[in-house]
Amino acid sequence: MYGIFMESVVILKLYTGLRYLAPLYLAGLIYLLITEKEKRIRTLIVYVPMAILAVYLCPLFRWFFVWMDQGGETYYRVLWLLPMGITITYAGCRLFAAHKRIGLIVMSLAVMLGGTYVYNSQYISKAENLYHIPQTVVAVCDYLKENEETDYIQAVFPEELVHFVRQYDADIGMPYGRSMLVPQWGYYNAVHEAMEKSEVIDVEALLEATRATLCNYVILHENQPLSDDPATYRMELMSNIDGYLIYKDVEVEQIIIEEYLPYM
Amino acid sequence: MIVFQVLSLIIWLLLVPLAIGLLPASLLNSRQQKPGVILLFGYLIMFAVFELMAIPVVLTVNYHGMTVLSSWFTVTTLGLAVAGMVSQAYVRRKTGKPLLTLSGQQLLDVGQRHKITMEEKIVWLIFLLLVGFQLYMAFTRASFDGDDAYYVVQSLTAQQQDVLYRREPDTGISTILDMRHALAVFPLWLSFIAVKSDIHATIVAHSIIPLILLPLSYLLYFQIGRSLLGRKRDMLPMFMVIMALIQMFGNVSIYTNETFLMTRTWQGKSFASNFILPAVLWLFLWIFEENTEKNTEGNIKVSILWILLGAANWAAGMSSSMAIFLTAMLSGALGFFMMIRKRKFMILVKTGLACIPSAIYVLLYMFLS
Question: Alpha helices of B316-355 — where are they, by DSSP H?
Fold first, then answer.
C-alpha cells in the first residue's frame, strides 16, 4: 500500500514539475479555506478539490484506476479535476481586492516566475505550413503522388519523417508507423529492424523486408551509410528532395502492376 | 474557394452553435441570456448530439461512414439551429426583446449597472492582447506531439477515405474496430468540420480548431470568474489576465491541462480537460448561485442547467472512456458535497441522473470490449 501511495506522490511531483505553481495553488487553497465566506464557493472550489486530492493519494483508488485503465499511465489525469489555475487566480483576486494594480503585478509575476513559458518548449517550432508538419514531408509525398502511375503507394520513411506522412496523406501506406518509434511499447517490425537498428543499413536485408510488405518506395537520407548501392538491386533513384533520396523499387512496382492492379 | 471555406467555418463553428444555444437560453431569464452563455450552451448540445450520432455510425457503417455521419449530423444540427431561431422569434414576440444582441455591454457580460472604468478597460485590453498573442502563436507555431500520428490521421482517413476507425493509422491497412478509441469520436468532429469546409483535416486540427477551442476555454473561465466574483465585477478583467498568464506559464510539465490546452488543443484529451471539466464546474457554480435557486421560475431554469450537465457528461465521451469516468467523478464529487452542504438528497439524485449518459457509455464500452 505504501508503495502504491508513493507512486501517486511521484506522479504528483512529475505533474507539478517541482515548480512554484503547485505551492501557489496550495497557498490559494489554504487562503480560501480560511477566508472564503460563501459556502457554495468553499464547497466547490475548496472542499471538493481537497477530497479529490485525498482520493488521488488513496492507494485503493489508484489500484482501481490501474485495473480500469489497464496500466495506469494516465493516472495524472485525475489531477485535472483540481481547478488549480482558477483557484490561484480567484484567491489572488480576493487577496488583492483592495489593491488591484499591485495585485495584478504581484500575481502576474508570481505566475510567470513560478511557471514555465510554454513557447520555450522544445516541442514548439515555427510552423512551415498550415499543416504544421515539415515541408519536406509535403514535398516528398506530393512527389510520390505525382509520379506514381498506379494509386498504390507503400513507402518506408526514415524515423524523423514517419510521424507526419499519413497526417499529410492518408492514402500513402507505410510498413510501420509511430508505434514502432516508442521503444517501451515493444513492437517488432522487420522493416523497422532493417531500417533503423544499425548504423549502416544492410540494403539486401532492407529490401528483403520491404519487398515482403510490397513497399514500392524507399526514402533514405542522403547521409545514411548503406552497405551497397540500391541500384544494384533494381532500385531506381527518382529524386533527391531536401536531402532525402527517393528510390522506386522496380521489382515491386512490376508485381503491383501485373498481379495486384487488376484486382484493385 | 477561400470565401466558401471561411463561410463554412463561420457557419459550423459559430452560427450553428449559437443558434442551437438559443434553444435552452430561451428558458433562462433575460439577465442570463448572454452571447457567451448561448454559445457555450450550443457547443455543449452540439458535442453531445455528435457523440450520440457518431457512435452508431462508427459501430455499424463499414464504408462511407463519414458521408453517413455528416448527413445525419448536418440535418440534426440544422434542425436544432432552426428550432433555436424559432425560440428566439418567440421570445422576441413575447418580451419585445431579442435573445441575442451583440452590444458591448452584453458581450462583456458585465451587467447594466456596472460602469466599466478606464482602468478596467486597460486591463481588458491586456487580456485581449494576451489571447491574441496565444492565437497568433497557435496559428504560426507547430507543436509536435506523437499522438497526432494516431488522432489526426484518424480525422484525415475519415475525410479522405470515408472510413471511420477501420484503418490502422500507422500503416493504412484495414483493421477491426479498436473499442478503446472507437467511441472517442472527437477526431471525427474535426473530420466533419474538414468535410464541411473542404479543408484538409490536418489544417483544421492544427491551424483552425485552436482558434476556436482556445477562446471557448476562456469563455468558460470568464463565466466561472463571473460566478466566483459575483458583484465584484471590477475584478473580472484581472481574473482573466491571470488566467491567460497561467495558460502561458502552466507548462510546468507535459501533463498539466494548461500544457494540453496550449500544445495539443485539437486532441480529445485537451478538449476534456479544458472544455468539459471546466464546463462541469461552471454549471455547478451556476446551479447553486443564490439568485438561480431563489428565482421564482427557477425550476425550469435550473432543470436546463442539470440537463446541460448531462450533455457535458455525454460529450466527455468524445474525448475518451477515461474522460467520461473523470467527468462523472467530478460531477459526483461536486454533487455529493453540495448535497451535504444543502442537506438535500435530491441534489445527489439529479447529479446521478446527469451521469446516466456516462453509465450508458461505460456499459457500452464494456459490452463491446
Answer: 321-342, 345-354
